[in-house]
Structures are given as C-alpha cells and as structure tokens.
Automatic annotation (TrEMBL):
It comes from Lysobacter arvi. Transmembrane segments: none annotated. This is DUF1611 domain-containing protein. Residues 135-329 form the D-glutamate N-acetyltransferase-like C-terminal domain. Pfam families: DUF1611, DUF1611_N.
Length: 339
C-alpha cells in the first residue's frame, strides 16, 4: 500500500523567490495536471518564475475559494529559507493551511509551528514515506510495469509517465500512474516519496509501490533523478531495481548539455542512458527493454519540434515523441510500450 494524502483544496501555489524554472516543477506540475485545483500563484520579492496563473495575495486567494497554500518549489536540498516564512505566516493568517513537499519539515520551523498552533491551521508535509517499509526481495511480480528514466533531473519524467498513463487509458488499457515524488503525490493523491526513504529500503519501497497486479494491468512509474547524476543516482537505481520494469522510456531535453545544478558535469547521451539502464535493470528483470524516447521540446516551436522528433527517431531507430504534443509520434511510442 502507498501512502494516501487527504489535502485541503483548491490551492494557492507559492513560488517563493525562485529564479530557476527547473526548481518550480511542483507548481508547473500542479498547473498542468491539476489545474482545476489551482486558483492562482503567490511569490515574494526576487521571484522571476511564473506559472501564468493569476497573481493573488493570500487574502485574494481565500476570497477565490482557496483552502491551502502549496509550496510549489523543489530547490536543491529541499529547504524552506527564512525569507519565505513571513509569506507562509501571512497565508495562515488569511485562513490557509500550508502544504509542503520539501525535505525540510514545516513542523520543525518554530515560526511556522507556532503560527499554525495560534491560528488553528494545518501544516501538511507530503514527503513522508510509509512506516515499516520492507527490504527489497528481488522476486518477480505479476502485471506489467513501465518506468520513465532521464538523462537528468527536471526534464519530463513525471509528465511523460502521466501522459503515457492517459494515452493508455484512452485505449482502454488498465493503467495506473505511480507517483514517486512530491509533485506526483500531490497530483495523484498517493505514492511514495522515494528520495525521503532510507537508502536500504528504497528498492523495497519501489516494490511496494507497484505490487502484484492483473496480467494486463500496467503500472506507469514516475522516474526520479538520473542514473548518471552525481548526487541523485542512488534513488534512480533503487527505482530501477525495485520496480523491475518490463519497459523503460528515456526522457531528455534537447539543448541541455550540463547537469541541472551541477554545471561541472556533462549530460550523458541518450544512447548511453539506454545502454546503462538496460544493463543495470536486467539484474532484476532480464526481459527489460526500451520502448523509445520522450523529448521535452517545450523550448522549440511546433515545426522545429516535429523535425527534431523525426530526426532523432531515425537516428536512434526507436519511436520518439514529445508526450505533451501528442499526435502520431506519441501513438507510435504507446504502441511500442504495449507491444
């Protein structure tokens, strides 16, 4: 069983003073996949990132029906800086609960804990793994599994998993999105925050996340990090071994050459990522295969994206698509996943 999260909705998305769009992936994910639950965004001085939602103060958000402010940032280290505290207190004073997916716990910050107690507000941390996680067994499980892997962090693994789940369901396939990070959990209402799990239990958590299932059922598992990442490769490997995927889809952002937040490291190639993932994944599922590649072409216009997708598919000999653009390329990728 995965942890289920009962959250007060709708949300006001808090962007803090963020200047790096890649760190605001929680806000963007909620905007794109749970937009009906988001009334607007709120930021403090210094922020340059926006979701494009209405800019609202906490008081205006409450008047619009908001029940909680969600920290929409996933910065390196997952900390909640003191510069954010007054804004979060203001939100509580306006009548909002606070929801966070950061590594830092809201309740461990005296100012926030005291304000919540004084005002009768809730502090909700979704980055809490279930209790009593097992050590991985490595035993095969029934059902089918797909895992998204990436050449880096924050480039589309969650979006790809969500889009593939939606496309499979549109074909009548019994498919479930399995969330492994705070944003996915906020979207799905359940999951396991893999990067908050003690290392010895991480592969076991991945097994728990995608248990035995019906023969035709697909679990589509949200990937984390990158097997080549200098900081986060451990969680990626645990997911790969524990989920025992039958199929992987490799995600990449064209034009990104250096690891996000670690510019001293070059990104691996798509080919190296596929080869490495298949070699490591075969340890727990010898039948693992790569169905294709998902490109994040959000920085390209439609024509350039179409040409790049076609060129990369011809070069790699695999289906390539931008899942957010859909179309025939995505259908070919889904065909390859299900074949």
């Amino acid at each position: 069983m995965t942890s289920e999260v009962a959250l007060p909705q709708p949300y006001l998305l808090f962007l803090g003073d963020t200047t790096e769009p890649g760190y605001a992936k929680t806000a963007f994910g909620l905007r794109d996949w749970a937009g009906e639950r988001c009334v607007g965004e709120y930021a403090i001085e210094g922020a340059t990132v926006t979701t494009g939602l209405p800019h609202l103060t906490p008081e205006q958000a409450v008047a619009s029906g908001a029940k909680a402010i969600v920290i929409g940032v996933a910065n390196a280290g997952g900390f909640i800086p003191p510069t954010w505290w007054p804004a979060l207190v203001r939100a509580m004073e306006a009548g909002l609960d606070v929801v966070s997916g950061m590594h830092a716990r809201l309740r461990d910050i005296d100012v926030l804990r005291e304000a919540a107690h004084r005002l009768g507000r809730r502090l909700i941390d979704v980055r809490e793994p279930p209790a009593h996680l097992p050590i991985a067994t490595g035993k095969p499980r029934t059902g089918k599994r797909l895992l998204t892997l990436g050449t880096d962090c924050a480039l589309g693994k969650k979006y790809t998993a969500l889009a593939l789940t939606r496309a499979m369901r549109a074909r009548g396939v019994d498919a479930t999105f399995r969330a492994t990070g705070q944003t996915g959990i906020l979207i799905a209402g359940g999951g396991i925050p893999m990067d908050a799990v003690v290392a010895d239990f991480a592969a076991g958590a991945a097994e728990m996340l995608s248990p035995d299932a019906a023969e035709r059922h697909w679990d589509v598992i949200e990937g984390q990090g990158s097997l080549f990442h200098p900081a986060y490769a451990g969680v990626s490997l645990a997911l790969l071994h524990g989920s025992q995927p039958d199929v992987i889809v490799v995600c990449h952002e064209p034009g990104r050459e250096r690891v996000l937040g670690h510019p001293g490291y070059a990104l691996p190639s798509i080919e190296d990522t596929i080869e490495f993932a298949l070699r490591l994944g075969a340890r727990t599922n010898p039948a693992i295969r790569c169905a294709g590649v998902a490109l994040n072409t959000s920085r390209l216009d439609a024509g350039a994206a179409t040409r790049l997708i076609a060129a990369q598919s011809a070069r790699l000999g695999l289906p390539v698509a931008d899942p957010m653009r859909g179309g025939a390329a995505l259908e070919r990728l889904v065909d390859a996943c299900l074949s």
